[in-house]
Amino acid sequence: MKKLMLSLSFFLFLAIGIFVSCKQSDSKKDKESIIKGKVDLLVDETVKPLLEDQIAVFESEYDAQITLQAKSEKELMQKFLKDTSGIAILTRPLSANETKFFEQMKIKPKTTKFATDAIALISNKKDLDTLIAMKDVVAFLKGDLKTKIKGLVFDNPNSSTVRYFTALAGVKEVPKEGVYSFKSNEEVVKFVAENDGIIGVIGVNWLLQPTASIKDYLTNINVLSVQGLNKNSYFAPTQNNLAEGTYPLARDLFIINCQGYSGLGMGFASFLAGDIGQRIILKSGMLPKDIPGRKILIKSRLK
User: Is the entire prediction scored with pTM above 0.90?
Assistant: First the structure.
């Protein structure tokens, strides 16, 4: 009889625990809607300035609080796969293995493309050559030190820019000689501005919307025009060249929503892809997915 009572007590305790857990989950959903509540947003560090602007406008319009967590791509994905009910901004869609992981967790990720970004290559003002060919960059990454490139500087060894360039060069990792990594895009700008002969690899968003700490350094750098593989012409990372598809180091931006319910993830994704979000991207100098229209009002002359 005593064993029976203990078993019943255990199952009653377990049932109460499950009930309380479900109530807490339901409570979170009740407190959050597509335009209300609190949520964390994981952001690829290379596009942090753009998302700071988007969040500021979104929060000014709605009763929402979005906490931005900027990380390198690898660090971001580690956290995203651990906290599977989150929201993330990536410079690529989820891989097949990542998608499969979420599906095994009974989560269907919702992916929304909202902009096209560019990876910029920068050099010191003392370096007069403002042109660079991707064939030389690829050769350098494959270990050929006879190119005119003396060194490459990345923002972070785990960043999306490193992943992009290693995939482009067809190598598993960057060479140990002549390649340097820091912890942020800001450090790349400062290092290149103070050292000639080095090529910096940076998200163009940091040049278009610089922070106060690097604004003065921009006067000491060149933004290079890039010749694509098997191409003859050089193109700068401008909005027009992104629109025409001529800049060779372009990449799309995505918001990945794994909340699984109608929360702020859905609302913010709609905002980014909507008219206001697209206008913020257009104003930033990057390329929005959909170019916002312009209304022209024609007024008759007053007599």
Answer: no
